[in-house]
Design goal:
Length: about 350
């Protein structure tokens, strides 16, 4: 059975350890920006709605500006140095600008709407805002595949009719029939490989990156798609959306408990509270995601009956993406949404006995 050498482990560690440190530094920078902004108390004479929009936009932009050098290093410079990024600097900047525009829009709309509810229902606004925030997460999960994902990638149906037919039959056996498996043009951004499911209802889809399509054999591709189909069958996207809805509702309640009825200039304090709720929930969310991934791994083995393809696929994914094979325990518990590649190979061995 193919496995990972000590050289594989060492190389992956050299790639990931600085990224973990960078993630911690970025978190501290974000907290510092929020604290500095929270020390400023002015509404600019724009009225509560204008002030709310201004505060949300200004703080979000401030975070982006302060973190830009670190984001450039870890997202472009270092990815180029390790041979993963296929983008030009201009392409990276355009993607960052799109992401920032989305972030600013969401921050402005969310904060202004929350203040509007607080003004309309001074006594009951937390209940209304929690319900509205949860509904917004649900709506965003539904529309993201057709509104947001196309901003960053182009999608096309899988052109190989024979393979597409095999995958549709696999989907029927999985109890998660699909009309199309879509291929994303990820190669214009990265050499890494991936596949995923997103959306639900009319917008649910299985997406394979063109880099995976180019590098995986037919058996390996079927194994990966079977894994994603299992996520669909088990409704993991929907369940994850429900967890996200609960998280934002908890954030609203935290804002109410700490700030009472918020003012426009309370945006950085509210952002700190939402960040705290997110950090508290990280271990549970990571554990839940790893559990779902193990379910999907077992299902992919059951659906394909191809243990060798399972091993080849996950070894190939780990090497092409330079996955961390031995992460620090704290990082694993907080951030790892998937089992490590060695854990996945161990599963294949267990299922074969």
């Amino acid at each position: 059975m193919p496995d990972f050498t000590q050289e594989d482990r060492d190389r992956a560690a050299r790639y990931h350890r600085p990224l973990y440190a960078a993630a911690l530094v970025r978190l501290l920078l974000v907290v510092a920006v929020y604290l500095l902004c929270a020390a400023t108390r002015t509404d600019g004479g724009l009225g509560w709605a204008g002030a709310a929009a201004l505060w949300a936009a200004a703080v979000t932009l401030a975070v982006a500006v302060v973190c830009l050098p670190l984001d450039l290093w870890r997202g472009f410079v270092r990815e180029r140095r390790w041979g993963f990024s296929t983008q030009s600097l201009g392409g990276w900047v355009v993607d960052r600008a799109k992401s920032l525009a989305i972030a600013v829009t969401l921050a402005v709309v969310t904060w202004t709407a929350l203040l509007a509810l607080a003004h309309a229902w001074p006594a009951w606004w937390p209940l209304a805002a929690a319900a509205a925030a949860a509904a917004a997460v649900f709506l965003l999960s539904f529309v993201a595949p057709v509104l947001l994902e196309p901003l960053f990638n182009r999608f096309r149906p899988l052109a190989d009719e024979r393979l597409a037919g095999e995958l549709r039959r696999l989907a029927e056996r999985a109890g998660a029939p699909v009309r199309d498996v879509l291929v994303a043009d990820a190669s214009r951004r990265t050499s890494k490989t991936n596949a995923y499911v997103s959306g639900f209802g009319a917008t649910r889809r299985v997406v394979v990156w063109d880099t995976l399509l180019a590098n995986a054999s037919g058996a390996e591709l079927k194994l990966v798609v079977a894994h994603e189909l299992a996520h669909r069958r088990e409704r993991h996207v929907f369940k994850g959306t429900v967890l996200g809805m609960a998280g934002v509702a908890a954030g609203v309640i935290a804002v109410w408990a700490v700030l009472g009825s918020p003012a426009p200039q309370d945006f950085p304090r509210a952002a700190l509270l939402f960040l705290a709720v997110e950090l508290v929930g990280l271990p549970f969310l990571a554990w839940t995601s790893r559990r779902w991934e193990r379910v999907a791994d077992r299902a992919s083995l059951e659906l394909t009956g191809d243990r060798d393809a399972f091993v080849r696929a996950h070894v190939g994914l780990a090497r092409s993406n330079l996955s961390d094979l031995d992460p620090p325990r704290a990082v694993y518990l907080l951030l790892f949404t998937h089992p490590t590649p060695p854990q996945r190979l161990a599963l294949a061995r267990e299922e074969s006995t």
